[in-house]
Amino acid sequence: MGRQPQNKAHALAAGKFGIRNSEFGITLAAAKLVALVLVCCWPLLGRAAVTTDNPWLVKAAYLFNFAKYVEWPTTRFTSTNDPICIGVLGDDPFGVALDNVVKNRTAQQRPVTILRAKKVEELLACHIVYIGASEQTRLVQILSQLRKLPVLTVGEQRDFLEQGGMVRLRTQRQSVVFDVHLPAADTAQLKLSARLLENAQSVIRKATPE
Fold this sequence. Notes:
The chain is of the alpha/beta class. The protein has helices at residues 4-16, 28-41, 55-68, 97-102, 139-146, 182-187, 194-199; strands at residues 50-51, 70-71, 84-89, 106-107, 110-117, 128-131, 152-155, 167-172, 175-181, 191-192, 202-204.
């Protein structure tokens, strides 16, 4: 029972782009294709959990897609030409994958830039901040600093959503999926599109009582 939805999702992703199930997620070339599929056609896939032997390409594609389907307050931009900035806090697990995904592409008709830093204070002006695993011991403090800013916080720590993060990336049966904490996004005055929420593996819609 538990495997059927995932297999169906894989079949949808594979069939739509002409990839046989036996080939899906086997080679680096397939991983790059998966990332391209996510970048170009992610809304069409529904909740398709995508398998790849290079998950960081897929995670990078997810970050780029988040930039396309989040609405920030207009005050977050000073002009129509301002880029959407994706920040990476702490040790960077992406390497060049994230740079390659956003290169020469736009989100919401804006260029996308990448900023890497060791201190959260250097990323306060970003629109999306990925909090690396190296920041686990400072996670509560970091999220507290970002909580009321219009910044989409993304991480992979097991307690990321419980601590106030907005989007948690995780691996499920060798596939990359993500969960959303909607109240945290609401607090930051971010509007997550229905397409983004439809692609989430799960969505927390009510704040947990303290």
